[in-house]
Amino acid sequence: MPIQLKSRSDLIRMRVAGKLTRQVLDMIGVHIRPGVSTVEIDEICHRYIVETLDAIPAPLDYRGFPRSICTSVNHVVCHGIPGSKRLKNGDIINIDITVIKDGFHGDASRMFTVGKPPILAERLIATSQECLVKGINAVTPGAHLGDIGAAIQQHAEAAGFSVVREYCGHGIGRGFHEEPQVLHYGTVGQGLEIKPGMTFTIEPMINAGGPQTRLLSDGWTVVTKDHSLSAQWEHTLAITDNGVEILTADPK
Ligand code: MF3
Ligand code: CO
Ligand code: CO
Predict the structure, then answer these.
(1) Residue 177 CA, closest ligand 1 atom number
(2) Distance 227 CA to ligand 3 centre (A)
(3) Per-residue pLDDT reduced to its tens digit, 117-141
(4) Which residues are CB-contacts of 107 (< 8 A; sequence separation ≥ 6)?
(5) What is the CATH number of the domain that holds 194?
(6) What is the per-residue pLDDT for 1?
(7) What is the pTM of this model?
(8) 3 domain-assigned
(9) What is the mean pLDDT of the chain?
(10) How remote is the CA of residue 147 from the centroid of ligand 3, in Å?
(11) In the prediction, which pLDDT does 252 show?
């Protein structure tokens, strides 16, 4: 399927989906503490999405995914399945939320810390968030997708970290994962030209060690091959005539 450029009325609905996604992440922060299990976090988010927001949690039953959110702890890169394991002091966790409202998707994730994590973990979390910001700052109509990847890769590697290659950002709209693929590494000036009407995510996964990953036998959980820590942040963006709108960010 080619890239689905969004109309003005599509964009209005994408803004709503993005706002609801952000609200879930804002809501869940206080629940991330030692002793809570990731399935408890999933259940709180599920109820909030369905009952409070009157929306649909996109991951649930997506290609067989069994839960409503992804919870990726420590060396888990992405797509962690919520389970009975409890968070402990020093853990870091990515919570990835995707909601569907009125037919359109919003997709965002953030890192949370449990108690006091090691300095390296704090640095990885800060650097990966800076990578997302630098990727977003590379987005303008007329820029190329490679500009995004180059900005992210440059910043991550300058800090001594590595960029995961096997998973990437994606177009988003009526579909959870649409064209184009948005790589988090690359070369300035390469790749597709960025055009008004595009909506896509940027979601760099940054490892403290090497970039290689391994898929666990559950078919979903992606971990670092060397068991080093990994961190990720994600926003959904819309490209307008004037520049970029971060649909999953607080406008303030
Ligand atoms: N939210 C993830 C992304 O950013 C995708 C999760 S797919 C799932 O693209 F099935 F694991 F939920
Ligand atoms: Co995504
Ligand atoms: Co996501």
Answers:
(1) 9
(2) 22
(3) 999 999 999 999 999 999 999 998 8
(4) 21, 58, 96, 97, 98, 172, 176, 201, 203, 234, 236, 248
(5) 3.90.230.10
(6) 80
(7) 0.98
(8) no
(9) 98
(10) 21
(11) 81
